[in-house]
Design a protein that fits this description.
about 100 residues, YefM-like fold, alpha+beta
Length: about 100
């Protein structure tokens, strides 16, 4: 992964923009990571797999009603181990 201070990114944005196609660019300020510059494709891939965590207490009554009504269209028993990890899916985004 490339890394550069924010001032360098600002001075030579075109060059760093092109490097973002090769992989994420770490942007630092005063020696600390403050942001990353990524290609649009990588961003879309990451965003597609983004999941927001919500505490049960934050769910509305209508959310809870939908969960209660949910069914699994299968006569076979299942458990969470039946669900593949994202790394095991054929179209999982590859980082790095």
């Amino acid at each position: 992964m490339s890394s550069a201070p924010a001032s360098e990114i600002q001075k030579n944005f075109g060059e760093w923009h092109d490097r973002a196609y090769e992989g994420p660019v770490e942007i630092t300020r005063y020696g600390r990571t403050t942001a990353y510059l990524v290609s649009a494709k990588l961003f879309r891939d990451m965003w597609a797999s983004y999941r927001k965590v919500v505490a049960v207490e934050e769910l509305s009554d209508s959310d809870m009603a939908m969960i209660r009504k949910a069914t699994v269209e299968s006569s076979e028993p299942f458990n969470l181990s039946d669900i593949p990890d994202i790394e095991e899916t054929p179209d999982a985004p590859r980082m790095g």
